[in-house]
Design a protein that fits this description.
With 332 residues, the protein is an alpha/beta fold. It folds into three domains: 114 residues, 3-Layer(aba) Sandwich (D-Maltodextrin-Binding Protein, domain 2), CATH 3.40.190; 111 residues, Periplasmic binding protein-like II (D-Maltodextrin-Binding Protein, domain 2); 89 residues, Porphobilinogen deaminase, C-terminal domain (Double Stranded RNA Binding Domain), CATH 3.30.160. α11 runs parallel beside α12. It is globular, with a radius of gyration of 20 Å. Strands 2-1-3-10-4 form a five-stranded mixed beta sheet, sandwiched between helices. Strands 7-6-8-5-9 form a five-stranded mixed beta sheet, sandwiched between helices. The chain is built from twelve helices and 13 strands. Helix content is 36%, strand content 21%. α1 links the parallel β1 and β2. It catalyses: 4 porphobilinogen + H2O = hydroxymethylbilane + 4 NH4(+). Tetrapolymerization of the monopyrrole PBG into the hydroxymethylbilane pre-uroporphyrinogen in several discrete steps. Belongs to the HMBS family.
Length: 332
């Protein structure tokens, strides 16, 4: 019997149940062991103030090393690129949607405005249907220039402010159910969520907008399974549920992140995907206030390079990301 460690949230339990079902499809019996994480206990402190690295994974790491569980299941974007000594990646499940979405507040009302909610939705989605031009948008002093958007992610905040510098960002914490409730009780225009998290548990509202222009966190939408190093029978069982293509793409994204981290909490985004027998890699580094943005969009033939994430990191550094990272490292 493989003991599966998981956080207690509805989404985490759903993810762990998928792992359990996949293992049992191969004749491997498994059970769930819910464990509370630091990130689930403190729902007030912004993630960047808690020290983002490992805030949702530490409790499961400890349980794994103490032999309380045999494997741990994580949203891969929450897992530090450097795993603790004695813990290894055992499997990566096939990726779901990598996108970020904006969930609109059904109770939000614009007062005395001469624009429609549909205008705002098209503008935010980045399509051409809005009658409000982006140039005039930035100059308006009406309520449209002061929309309040909720997120606890430094990456999402930076990309949003880069696109909409006149908006206000509010912190929001908690599992997806808690955040949806907080949104409905607020005066916020909307809150940003990972599409996969809401879609997996059937909670994506109809009034949500795909943010196709927003690059995701490295490994967003992927589920990772970790195990103890050297636990041969468990590792062999998990290898049977490993999705090779997803594993390679998220490995590339995490290589990019690892090369750029520099010891600071930096808004770094990455997305790798196979297209026409090549690997397309898109990445960005954005200053926390959104004023500076460096991007990379590269294509790699896998017979020419085995480390596309590292090469993409070198490319974006040469394009100016090094200066942006240096400013943040220096606290400027």
């Amino acid at each position: 019997m493989i003991r599966i460690g998981t956080r207690e949230s509805q989404l985490a339990l759903w993810q762990a149940t998928q792992v359990k079902n996949l293992l049992e499809n191969f004749g491997v019996p498994a059970s769930l062991t819910p464990i509370r994480s630091d990130g689930d206990v403190d729902l007030v402190t912004p993630l960047y103030a808690m020290g983002v690295q490992g805030v949702f994974t530490r409790a499961l790491d400890i349980a794994l090393l103490n032999n309380q569980i045999d494997i741990a299941v994580h949203s891969m974007k929450d897992v530090p690129v450097q795993l603790p000594e004695g813990i290894v990646e055992a499997a990566v499940l096939e990726r779901a949607s990598y996108k970020d979405i904006l969930v609109l507040n059904e109770n939000w009302k614009a007062s005395g405005a001469d624009y429609s909610l549909e205008d705002l939705k098209h503008l935010i989605a980045g399509d051409e249907k809005s009658e409000i031009s982006s140039d005039s948008y930035r100059d308006q002093k009406s309520e449209i220039s002061n929309l309040i958007i909720a997120t606890s992610s430094v990456r999402r905040k930076a990309q949003w402010l880069n696109r909409f510098p006149n908006h206000t960002i509010e912190n929001i914490r908690g599992n997806v159910n808690t955040r949806l409730r907080k949104l409905s009780e607020s005066n916020w225009f909307g809150a940003i969520f990972a599409a996969a998290g809401l879609e997996r548990i059937g909670l994506r509202p109809a009034n949500s907008i795909d943010l196709d222009w927003m690059l995701p966190a490295p490994a967003q939408g992927a589920i990772m399974v970790t195990a103890r190093k050297g636990d041969g029978s468990v590792l062999r069982a998990c290898n049977r549920i490993n999705h090779l293509q997803t594993a390679f793409c998220v490995k590339t994204e995490r290589e990019f992140l690892s090369e750029l981290m520099g010891g600071c909490s930096t808004p770094i985004s990455a997305l790798a995907a196979f297209e026409n027998d090549q690997l397309r890699f898109r990445g960005s580094v954005v200053s926390p206030d959104g004023t500076e943005k460096i991007e990379v969009n590269e294509w790699y033939r896998l017979d020419e390079t085995r480390t596309p994430g590292t090469q993409a990191a070198q490319s974006i550094l040469e394009k100016g990301a090094k200066a942006v990272l240096s400013k943040m490292n220096d606290g400027r």
